[in-house]
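Example 5.3 — SEC14 and spectrin domains 1
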Amino acid sequence: MEATIILPILKKKLAFLSGGKDRRSGLILTIPLNSDQTSMEELSATLDYLLSIPSEKCKARGFTVIVDGRRSQWNIVKTVVLMLQNVIPAEVSLVCVVKPDEFWDKKVTHFCFWKEKDRLGFEVILVSANKLTRYIEPCQLTDDFGGTLDYDHNDWLNKRLVFEKFTKESTSLLGELSVINDGDKSRSVDKDNLFCVCVCVCVCVCVSAGHELLSELQQRRFNGSEGGGGGGQAEELLAQPQVMKLLDSLREQYTRYQEVCRQRNKRTQLDEIHTKVMQVVNWLQGPGSELLKNHQAIGDSIRAAQALQQKHEEIESQHSEWFAVYVELNQQIAALLSAGEEEEVAELKALQQQLSDVCYRQAAQLENRQNVLQAAQTFHGTTQELSQQLDGLLSMLCADVAPADEASIQQNLKLLEEKLQAVEAGLTSLRQKGGVLLEQMCSQSAWSLEETESPAGEQQDNVQQIQSVMEEMQLRKQRCEDMVDVRRLKMLQMVQLFKCEEDALQAVDWLSELLDALLKTHVRLGDDSQETRTMLDKHKKFVDVAQSTHDYGRQLLQATVVLCQSLRCTTRSSGDTLPRLNRVWKQFTVSADERQQRLELALNFHTVTERVLQQESVELDSLDEVDSSGKALLDRLTMPIIFPDGYKHSCCFKRIVFHQNLYLTSVMHVKIVSYGQKES
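Solution (predicted structure tokens):
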């Protein structure tokens, strides 16, 4: 039975072999029932066709039949199960009836199957779809039952139709070839040639279809159940030997037919081959060589080289037509040599040698020209890229440098170095590409001189062009390097400028901190002369530190001015920093001088007081001196610090004045008491 006869029925997918197997390696036959009325005649025809596919060996393992009744009624399921007894009673091992979620009456179904068990000859079980894996592995079930086996019914049916079509056509073609090979061989040459072409086409089409089919079957066989969309290995094990046997028979009959044709057309082929060989040789040595000789340029740009490449491809296309004739002639000569007479062999070998020498020589010239053009395109492309890199570097060098901070300068400097390195790498690559191109051109010149009178002047111009391009790029690169050196020095000076400005601002901040510390923390005057002297020494050191900071800041600002003059740019933040430095320094010197005078008055007061205390008899003049020095100190403490800009600073001394008044009053009181005691 052929599939085309019952094709409408097979398309309904009333039953199918998915390729899955049960745990006994038996094939799985699936019967998907639906709510529509199922025709038992169509189902029976489908089962008959499907059972004709597997081999007897596969059938001997038995079938596991899955009756999908989830979308059908019980009476239809029962009819199908009973029908299996008549269609495939011996081959069925197990029937799994997949029941719906709202299944039929258990008592009725169980009773019916139990009642028919002995008569059926096979076991029937009711199972839900999710429990079907208890009997069959999930990998052997299709996705309808929660399995992973891929099955495409339309694809299977198409492959089956292809197989049956190949079998039918190849069998018919074998019969025709057998009749031709065993029949009358007296036929005119022209008619035989035409008929030979037709037979050749038919055989090639049939063999090609057979190979495609065989390849498909072998691939699915090796992939196993994972190949999907097939009729299982039972079909494949049967189909592959049939296809291979038919292909072997086709080759055998066609080989015999070709031998008949060759014997009949040998003399005609010899004449035709000689004519075609001379046509190929004359064209390659004439117009072909002239085309190559007239196209030796390499172009002066990548666009020109691409145009030359396009022209060369046209030349190659013209040659390829003749090379195709050469291949065909070579195959014909080789075929005739294997079965020719002795005198024919000598003539064929001479023609073959002459044809091969000319074709190989011309092919070598085309390949050398192709290599030159490819090297020229690479060289021009590298030249263009290097030129763009040099233009970008030059544009960067010609642009004004006005970075906002040191980080941007460092970034620009890094970018400049990277561009210079890229240019250096590009020039190195250009030299390499130029060397390769010159080498290819020398090779081209060698065979050109051997074969033809090559235009040496054009080749020399090409060499000079390559060398001049490399020299020009070298000069441009050298000029850019000189400009890079100047720009690098300028950027380094700008880095130094920003550093000086930053350090100068830091010096101003340090000096401001010293001034703030002087005004807020350097307020004590000491409790005796020794402590006051110590404070005077520390104060001098403190002033020295401030002086060093001020000198450092001025030096940085002077360096900033020099760098700005060198860079020919206006003074940047140093124009504002210098007044700030001078203002803070003047405030510091005024405050330091005031602090110096107060410490000196305090030292004088402590010295006079201590001297009076050490006297055995205190004179009135000494007490007056103590009083006058104390009052002078008190008056000095009450005076605010007046900065050069007119600002008065006194708030930080209020508490000091209070304590100093209390201290001086107490000291004077003690001295008066001491004086009274001494008088008494």
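Remark. The longest strand covers residues 92-98.
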